């Protein structure tokens, strides 16, 4: 798939071009999806008391919240190839708003579990975000574009940890009971999801030159071949060992971030004997690092590619993963709150840079099956989160021990990044594409305001 007129610079304050509208709408939509996806996480201490949940049951709800996303991410990537990211995103946002608001009707562990399972589908929004920015930006900045849009989306995990306890506290000040308060609080992200879905359909387009149906009508894009065509692109991606190597890599970076988003507030609440609001504020710092951390991962990926080509992108990915594992092991050993916060921020920096570095490599694996590749790798993040959640559902393992084992796992599996290799022909082709995108504009690889 060759898409023409991709942008070779990210102009943050320019909303007039389809490339930048897609950039801003995609990160904001993913941000709101994160808000709905993990909106209940900082309120789990209250939900635990209201529904009388055990640690094992809480662990099961964590698994449910990320398990369904695995399936939906696999499907959504192929769907993007067929109908385009605009329709796929709009539909997911509107449909996803229903279970987010509906979780307030849960009155038992079983109904709460089903609600979190349904909400988990909106986590597939990440794949569409990466797909859409890949459609819009040239090779010299695609790593930065993917990383920034995803990072600012992941930032929703941080703002959620901070805002949901404040929304909940505001409802209590109005005289609402705790039992009703956490239920009403979830209406807020649900409404925003619905409105964002309508705006996404109205104000974005699939590619720089138009929507997929228009491009196909003009012969600028191959026709969608129905289910058989979708199956072929998925199989092409699934047969590539590099895709599964990146699947594992994303499991040990994004999967770890999802796990921390789910347990951070309750971990600080219990381990350091803090109030719910204070624990939420501290946990929110982890996600707030996405303001710049994931972007840095993409920027470094593009910089490593300048001199090292695709091998340089892979080399940077491996470095980021090793640093992530070391920081997580160190975080798990912290018993003093101030030290724990400091090391958590270092860990957050590297886990998010590793995510940005991963999707600095993804666009170059198979351009004819971009959606399928992005979907499989994205699903790896949720498989990692599901696997990690089993460490934290057991009554026999403390959260601190679980974090330590998780850090060791990251260090061992980081070597999977080195399995991602490219042929000399692909290396040469992408090196030329990179230089063509830069052209005479030496600053094209950087973010700019205008």
Automatic annotation (TrEMBL):
Q: What is its main location?
A: membrane
Name the membrane topology term. Multi-pass membrane protein
Asked whether the UniProt record includes Transport among its keywords, one would answer yes
Its domain of life?
Bacteria
Keywords carried by this UniProt record: Cell membrane, Membrane, Nitrate assimilation, Transmembrane, Transmembrane helix, Transport
Which residue range or ranges hold the Major facilitator superfamily (MFS) profile domain? 22-427
Q: Which GO terms describe its biological process?
A: nitrate assimilation
Q: Which GO terms describe its molecular function?
A: nitrate transmembrane transporter activity; nitrite transmembrane transporter activity
**What Pfam families does this protein map onto?**
MFS_1 (PF07690)
Q: Where in the cell is it found?
A: Cell membrane; Membrane
Q: Which PANTHER family match?
A: HIGH-AFFINITY NITRATE TRANSPORTER 2.3
UniProt-recorded name of the protein: Nitrate/nitrite transporter
> Which species expresses this protein natively?
Halomonas chromatireducens
């Amino acid at each position: 798939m060759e898409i023409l007129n991709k942008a070779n610079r990210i102009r943050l304050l320019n909303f007039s071009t389809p490339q930048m509208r897609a950039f801003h709408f995609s990160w904001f939509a993913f941000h709101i999806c994160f808000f709905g996806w993990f909106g209940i996480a900082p309120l789990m201490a209250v939900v635990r008391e209201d529904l009388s949940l055990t640690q094992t049951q809480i662990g099961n709800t964590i698994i449910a919240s990320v398990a369904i996303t695995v399936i939906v991410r696999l499907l959504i990537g192929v769907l993007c190839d067929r109908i385009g990211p605009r329709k796929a995103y709009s539909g997911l946002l509107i449909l996803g708003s229903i279970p987010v608001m509906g979780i307030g009707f849960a009155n038992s562990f079983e109904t709460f579990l089903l609600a979190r399972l349904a909400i988990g589908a909106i986590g597939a929004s990440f794949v569409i975000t990466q797909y859409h920015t890949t459609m819009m930006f040239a090779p010299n900045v695609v790593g930065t574009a993917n990383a920034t849009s995803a990072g600012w989306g992941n930032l929703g995990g941080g703002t959620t940890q901070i805002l949901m306890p404040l929304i909940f506290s505001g409802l209590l000040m109005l005289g609402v009971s705790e039992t009703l308060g956490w239920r009403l609080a979830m209406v807020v992200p649900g409404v925003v999801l619905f409105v964002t879905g309508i705006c996404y359909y109205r104000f974005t387009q699939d590619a720089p030159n138009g929507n997929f149906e228009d491009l196909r009508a003009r012969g600028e894009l191959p026709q969608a071949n129905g289910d058989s065509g979708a199956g072929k692109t998925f199989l092409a991606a699934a047969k590539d060992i590099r895709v599964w190597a990146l699947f594992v890599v994303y499991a040990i970076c994004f999967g770890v971030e999802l796990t921390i988003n789910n347990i951070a507030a309750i971990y600080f609440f219990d381990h350091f004997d803090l109030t719910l609001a204070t624990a939420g504020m501290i946990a929110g710092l982890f996600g707030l690092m996405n303001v710049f951390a994931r972007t840095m991962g993409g920027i470094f990926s593009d910089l490593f590619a300048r001199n090292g080509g695709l091998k340089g992108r892979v080399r940077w990915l491996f470095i980021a993963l090793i640093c992530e594992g070391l920081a997580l092991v160190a975080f798990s050993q912290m018993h003093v709150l101030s030290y724990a916060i400091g090391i958590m921020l270092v860990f957050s920096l590297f886990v998010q840079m590793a995510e940005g570095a991963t999707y600095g490599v993804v666009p170059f694996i198979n351009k004819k099956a971009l959606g399928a590749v992005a979907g499989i790798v994205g699903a790896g993040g949720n498989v990692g989160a599901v696997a990690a959640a089993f460490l934290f559902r057991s009554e026999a393992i403390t959260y601190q021990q679980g974090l330590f084992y998780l850090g060791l796992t990251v260090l061992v599996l980081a070597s999977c990044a080195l399995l991602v290799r490219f042929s000399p022909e692909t290396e040469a082709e992408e090196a030329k594409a990179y230089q063509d995108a830069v052209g005479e504009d030496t600053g094209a690889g950087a973010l700019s305001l205008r």
